[in-house]
Amino acid sequence: MQEMDYVKEANNGLKFRKLYGGIQDVLVPEMYVEHTTRRVLVMEWVEGEKLSEVNDLYLVEVGVYCSFNQLLENGFYHADPHPGNLLRTFDGKLAYLDFGMMGEFKQELRDGFIEACLHLVNSDFDALAEDFVTLGFLPPTADRGAITKALTGVFQNAVAKGVRNISFGDLLGNLGTTMYKFKFQIPSYFSLVIRSLAVLEGLAIIFDRNYKVLGSTYPWIARKVLTNSSPQLRSSLRAILYKDGAFRIDRLESLMSESLRARTEKALVKRKTEENESEVAIKQILSFTLTKNVQICLFQGFHIFCLNFGFLISEI
């Protein structure tokens, strides 16, 4: 993707500001399009220090949250978030600069990426193999059985450590041999996504060697899966919660626990005007448990589900 002219960059900045300028402690500079030409960009002056040069893990978390909104909520994302384009302003905000290189993440791809993360964390490697086909990493003719076996060998030990200990960079490194063997192709759209996430994890590691971007992002993925009305994600949630006719209460508890962690962290980093998603989560899960094999819930610890879900509601 080539950088665009300054008029286009200014319009990108306007759109970025409209979508993400309301996030707490995020600064997106004003663009003066009426004074901008193809060769001259006129925008708000921003002063600050490179994020990589200040010890501010909180603002890295702000960046992760903002990236989550870019990649998984709206699909319009900053495709060049190198340290020079991320500043800590003198009043403690994260400023984004340079909107010449932006990416568009279509809805079906966003849902597919969420599904892949969900399947990875839950060790559903057969479903993960299918995700790689859907996302364009592998052709439809790929041998699903062989790929599932390979993915199990690559990811099983890493996933067993828990989502909070999974390194995004390590996952990519471990996948290298498998990608070569099965002739994986990295779509152009995804190379920009990888770059964006890798830069953020790299910045965070400067301040916290144990930081994991997937561990920070997954709670919001869990919340989105629990609250989103997308048929694709609803189908994935159903597949995660039910197996061979049995309701998997442990997976529901895990999703709820992670979702609660997102809300707890979001007390510090959240949109100024945020819709209440609790009612959506209640309706979403009850639509599965009360309309399909409710007896399963009753005999497999529905009382635990009620207690934990009640705790989630009270905390949200």
TrEMBL record:
For this entry, the protein name equals ABC1 family protein
Q: Which protein family is named in the record?
A: Belongs to the protein kinase superfamily. ADCK protein kinase family.
What InterPro entries does the record tag this protein with? Answer: ABC1_dom, Kinase-like_dom_sf, UbiB_kinase
The record's listing under Pfam families reads:
ABC1
What positions does the domain ABC1 atypical kinase-like occupy? 2-130
Q: Which organism is it from?
A: Rhizophora mucronata (Asiatic mangrove)
Q: Which CDD domains does the annotation name?
A: ABC1_ADCK3-like
